[in-house]
Amino acid sequence: MKRSKFSIPGGMGWFIFFLLLSPFLYSPVYAQSTQTNQAGDKAGGQTSDSPIQLLMPEEGGMSIAKKAMIKCAIKTPYDQQKLLVLLDGTDISGILDITPDGFEHKATALLTAGEHTLSVTITTQEGQELKREFKFSTRHSKPFEEVYSSNEITTIAEKKAVKTGDTVTSPSWKVESNLASESKIKMKEWELNFKTNLRYFDQNMPVTPPPDKGFNLANYLFQAKYNGERINFLAEAGDITIDETPYTVTGLARRGGNLVFESKDLHLQLRTFDVKSEQLFGFVGGSGLGTTPSDHIFGASADLGLFSDKLRFRTIYVRGGEEGNSVGTSTTTTTPIVTPGETPPYGISSTTNQRKGDVLGFLLTSDFFDKKLVTEAELDFSRFDSDTSDEFRAKRDKAYRIKAGGTIKDYTYEALYEYIGRDYEVIGNQGLSKDKQGYALKAGGTFFKIHLLNLSFSQYHDNVKNDDLYARLYTTQGTLGYTFSKFENLPISLSYQRSMSRSKSDPIDTLHTRMDTDTITGNVNYKKTPWDFGFLASYSYQNDRTDAENDTTTVTYTFTPTYTLDYLSICPSFSFNRSLTHPTGVHTNTYTATLDLKGDLFQKRVTYGLGGTYSVVRASDGLSKQYTQNANFNVYYLLFKDLWGFLNPSVGIRGLYNRTNDKVLHQSTDELALYLVLQTSMKFLF
Description:
Helix content is 2%, strand content 59%. The protein is mainly beta. Among the domains are: 34-139, Immunoglobulin-like (Sandwich); 228-434, no CATH class.
C-alpha cells in the first residue's frame, strides 16, 4: 500500500461538527425527555371512554426527546400474556414495564424525528379483543428536528493459553477495538451527516495491510444535504461510491468528493466527482481530493427527464489515471515487483505500469407504460492507454447495449443485446468484460398461482474484430427453471441448463473447441418451525465432442437440516460429490460434513458457539486420499449488562483445532490453540 505523511482526513470537519453540536448535546434541557405545551405527562384533555388511553406523549402531541418515554393506561382487567404493543410496526411487548395502571416504555433505541404510530391490542378476561392506535410526533431539540451522535465502542483482547502442534499460525495475543460513530443534524430542509469507523489493532505477529497495526481510520463520510420543494443538493466527502452506467463507472468505491444538484422543476440532475484512483485505507492518502490526472479519477454527468420523467437522457464524461498496483479487477497477471522488506501493494491488480484514459457515455431510458415496457440504450466511447511509458498511443473503442423488458401482471420479460469492443477499457472499471458481443433473453411468470416458470437463453462470442490470429469462441446457454409452491411448507424447484461452446476460424495448430454441458438440479425444502430440511441434488455431464473426448460427469447430493429457536440454532450439512473422468475411468469422491451451532443461556448471560468441517477426498486410482478437520468453539459470560448504563463486559474462552492427514504422501499437520478472551461493548448516545 502506498504510504504518505500522517494526516487525519476530515479531522477539522469532525471538530467543527461537534462544536456545533455541543450546545445541544450537553444542555440539561435536552438531555431528558420533555413535552411541548401541546403535551404533558397526563392526557388530561382526553375524553375517550376507551379502556386504553395514551398518557405520554399526548395523542397527537409532540415529544422533545431522543428516546421518548411512553406511558399507557389500561382501565379494564386483561390478560398480560396476550398484550401486543407495536411501535412503528415493531413488536415491543417483551420489553415493556408493566404497571398496575397499564405499562411504560422508555425507548431503547434512537427515535427518528417525525410522526410515530403506537398500536395496543389487549384481550379482556371475557375473551374480547380490544385495539387502539395512537399517533404522536417527536423531535430531538427545539431548534433542530434531529440532533444526535450515536457511538459504539467494541473491544476484544485475547491471549493464547494453550497451543500444540508445529503449524500454529495464529498469534499468541491480539487486541482489536472499533469505534463506530454516526452523527446527524437536521433542521427543515437541511441535513448534516457524519459517519466513521476508527480502529485500533495490534498483535505479536506481522500483518498484511489492511488493516495495519495501531490506530487507523477505516472509513469516513461527511454529507451535507438540502431537500427543498424545487431543488435538492448533496455534497459528500470521504469514502464514497459512484454509480453512473454499467459501461462507464459503476460501483466505484473510492475516497474523494461528490456533488449532486437536482432541479425538480426542470427534472434535471447534475453530478461531478473527484476521487483517488488508488484504494485508500486508514490515515493514508488524505481526503482523496486532488487535481493530478495521473492518480485521480474525475467525472461529470447530466441527467435530464422529459415527459414527466417517462423519458430520461444522461451523458457522462470520466477521465483519469492509475498505477498498475492500484486496487481494481484488472485481468493482468504480471507478478508485482516488491522491494525486500516492503509491504506488498493493497489490491488485486498486479502490474506496475501507469495507465490513463477517458470515456464519454450516453444513456437513454424510457418507461411510458407503467413498467410494462422499460427500455435502456447506452453508447460509450473510450480512449485508453494501458502503459504510458511505451511508444504506443492510446487505443480507441466503443461499447453499446440495448435492453427492453417489463412486467405485465404475473409475467416478466427482458431482451438484451450488447457489444463491447476488444480495446474498450475504462479507468475505475477494470472488471468490465471486454471483447464480447451477443444477446440474452429472459422470460418468466406465475401460472395458476402455484407454478413459477423461468426461461433464459443467451449467445455470445469473443474476437469481435474477427482477428485472423485468434479463433472466435461462441458460447450458447439455455436454462429452464420451475418451482412448485402449492404447499407452503414444501417448495420444490427443478432446473435444466444446456451450455455449448464452439470455436470457429481456428488458426493452424490450434485445438478446436466443441463442448456441451448438461446440468440438472433439484431442490426440495420442508419447513415447519423450528425445523427446515433442505435437500439438493445435481447431475452434470460435460461432453467433449472433439477427438480428445475429455468427458466428465459430476454428481452432488447435499442435505441441510436446520433447527432454529430464539435461544438456539443448529445448522449442520452433509454433502457428497463424485467426479468421473471418462477417458481414464477415475472417479474422485468428496465427503463433507459441517456444523454451525449458536445459542445462549440464562437470558443471554451465557453465549456459546461451535463450528467445524470434516472432509474426505478419495480417488479410485489411489493417488488421492486426504482427511481434513477444522473446528472452533467459544463460550462467553456476560459479567454486567448495561453497567453504568452503557458498559457490557464479558469474559470467555475460544478454541480452534485444525488437522490434515494425507494418506498418500504420508504427511499430517495438527494445530490446537485455546484463548482467554475479554470483550466489551459500550454505547453512547448524545
